[in-house]
Design goal:
Elements: H1 2-13, H2 22-35, E1 39-41, E2 47-51, E3 55-65, E4 70-76, E5 82-87, E6 99-103, E7 110-117, E8 138-142, H3 149-153, E9 162-165, E10 170-171, E11 176-179, H4 182-200, E12 207-214, E13 231-241, E14 253-259, E15 262-263, H5 266-278, E16 283-287, H6 294-300, E17 306-314, E18 321-324, H7 325-339
Parallel strand pairs: 3-12, 3-13, 13-17, 14-16
Antiparallel strand pairs: 1-2, 2-12, 4-5, 4-9, 5-8, 6-7, 6-9, 7-8, 10-11, 11-18, 14-15, 14-17
Helix pairs in contact: 1-4, 4-7
Length: about 350
Amino acid sequence: MQETINYLKKLTSIVSPTGYTKEISDYLVEELERLGYNSIRTNKGGVNVVVLGKDNSKHRVVTAHVDTLGAMVRAVKPDGRLKLAKVGGYPWNMIEGENCLVHVASTGKTVSGTILVHQTSTHVYRDAGTVERTEDNMEVRLDAKVTNEKETRELGIDVGDFISFDPRTIVTDTGFIKSRFLDDKVSAAILLDLLRRYKEENVELPYTTHFMFSVFEEVGHGANSSLPKEAVEYLAVDMGAMGDDQQTDEYTVSICVKDASGPYNYEFRNHLVSLAKENGIEYKLDIYPYYGSDASAAMRAGAEVKHALLGAGIESSHSYERTHIDSVEQTHKLVNAYLRSSLV
């Protein structure tokens, strides 16, 4: 698992809110070329790799997304602080108190800051703890000597500049991985490590497989295009959602049976369960009630494939997330077993 964790640390260190993903796409292209693959950069900015298999008449697609939650500058306030617009879906309290970077388009530089509710000081605002967190009162406190809109704009900051959040990636001695954006950089790390292993071990997959790293999943359309006409199966490797009424945990691989888009392919799901049982892989079946994936986006776009979704169990999704290396390992094993198996 060490190589997978190394990939994860590298991926989380590269800022990539949806719409601001060129740097992470560049990294993927560079790393894949280093491994000996010819990558394809899509017009949307995703990175695809085609691995030829023994059977080239029917293809598989496997995806992970490298775009993350983030924000954009909504407005520069009269006191020089910034209003935000969300990129991706999350409640405002999920990012309150987080350090951030403003990526200034006009200069190419960054300005650091902290995301706070306007009524933060308990010595001034009686409702500091109870006021509703909304777009109107969440703001970025810049680490710059600015006291008004003019001074902030003199830094080059303007509406539409991207804002990224500090990932704060930590791997503990007890095997826990804490970071923002484990959704879905854990999965991207797994796919990169599998590609590394297949190249080093000269593994020939049974079917030509398209590894797709998408960059618009967090806003709903992800890897819903650039699909080969030969594709018959589509596996999204994303995250397993944890919470009340969920079986998913931080130590097994989660196989999704249904999300907000509806049920996933029944035969495909059962195929994954059979592979897990045959290979001694610890798994859980689950429903993710408020969730969509690259696979569900592809189905809405009209893909004629069998689709499935699995991933490591992620605690506190879209906040400061956590998983365990055990879950990463079980997910790694199941994706590998699937890619080496017969078609559903």
